[in-house]
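haha ok so turns out i had the wrong file open the whole time. this is the CORRECT one, sorry everyone. sequence first:
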Amino acid sequence: MLPTFIKKLFSPSSKKQQREFITVVSGLPRSGTSMMMNILEAGGIPAITDHQRAADIDNPKGYYEYEQVKELPNGETKWLNNANGRAVKIISSLLQHLPEPYQYRIIIMERKIEEVLISQKKMLERRNEISDNVSDEELTTLFHDHLHQTEDWLQKHHHHVSCLRVSYNTVLKNPEVISRQINRFLGGGLDVRAMTSVIDPALYRNKKT
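then structure:
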């Protein structure tokens, strides 16, 4: 039987305490960022969220949003002092406002642009909201330009930023493989079985064939 101190040394909880970085989940809207936050939380990484936006038909497992994130462009970053070892969802357009004193491991969710547009339109229709009068072609170009700018930022800040790109579509097809990959990226110690169990392929409702 292993001594108690050995058990503690190799337990998932002790490994969580060793995460001297902030886990960030990012990507375009409707790219699976909330799903990834749910996966990380199931794996044992506490989520930074204020629960102000309740779960609904578009995100049945919650949005995992944190209002203070929107204040990053205004220099409101004090909340990051307590963010080590935790996960936060930050839309890709705000990544450039993350301050340098911190270390980040960023999971970038990638999804087919056509599916992002379909999902966004359906969500706006359900809420009786009207989107800007911009064509799908224009939005596609804007999204691609934005993704290139995000990639440039990631490359320039590699000294304090590590990045893992995860395909939304692959998560749903190979949940265990992706869960193990995420576990390695974040230093190990996560509950891979629990991560895999919360991935629900039935939520893949907006497909582009």
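Residues 45 and 86 are 6 Å apart (CA to CA).
again sry for the mixup
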